[in-house]
Amino acid sequence: MIAVVGATGNTGRAVVGELTRVGHAPICVVRNADKARDVLGMDAKTAIAELTDRPALDKALQGVTSVFVVTGHNPNMVEQQTNVLEAALDAGVQHFVRVSGSRFFLFPDSPSVIGRGHYAIEDRLRRSGIKWVILRPGFFMQNILGQAASIKNDSKIVLPFPGELPLAFVDVRDTGALGARILLDPEPHTGKVYEFTGAKSSFAEFADVLSQTLGRKITYVGVPFERAEQTMRERGTPDWLIAHQRTAAQIVADGGLAGEMMEPIRSIVGREPLTLKQFVEDHKAAFN
Question: How is domain 2-138+171-196+259-273 classified at the architecture level of CATH?
């Protein structure tokens, strides 16, 4: 039996969707039953558990053999995912598949609390004795949805990155497809770390694809991080998230997320990664 922790998030629901399409009904470990019904459908098998509630997690993972774990970026992620791991160990779960961050973030004294968190979680995971697989996706195409209002109203993408800087995007649905196939046959992947992306591109090319698909000119505007930081502070963005975004911006500027790594999707999923054009076509309504 497979459980997906974080099943209502973008990545979690992609995993659930992929498993469902091949005829497998995973247990969806969620915090909110109403949201689960809205996002996953009435037929989804759910277990309600806060990630800080060990007894609830213990109950949710009973009888589970493989668990997929993804949580949103937050300062409590170490406690949350460690709780899931400990509950999995107690329940006799055999395989633990988690979505991690870029290796460029992951070190003990990372300026990003998210980078430090991923490092701590993976350190505990590697020492736990459970059979593990770690997924490191590239820069998610879905991040551009945060610019949907600007694209819709002003025909602009405004971000703190140079437009022509090489960047390898990946669709969350590719993460879901890869995760689902590993869950269905985890043994060959035990102890492996998969870094994966779609084709190398750039934000300028993303804007061009949007222009072609929407039938109007979409302009990319690269701004200094200081301007983006000011906007985030005006919106009440917490300091830890600003620090994480600053770290990400520096990694991108240094070319850290430019490497094209499509082989895991090709070899494990059995198809090419989704393209920018496919992403924009499928989310066209958000930008019009």
Answer: 3-Layer(aba) Sandwich (3.40)
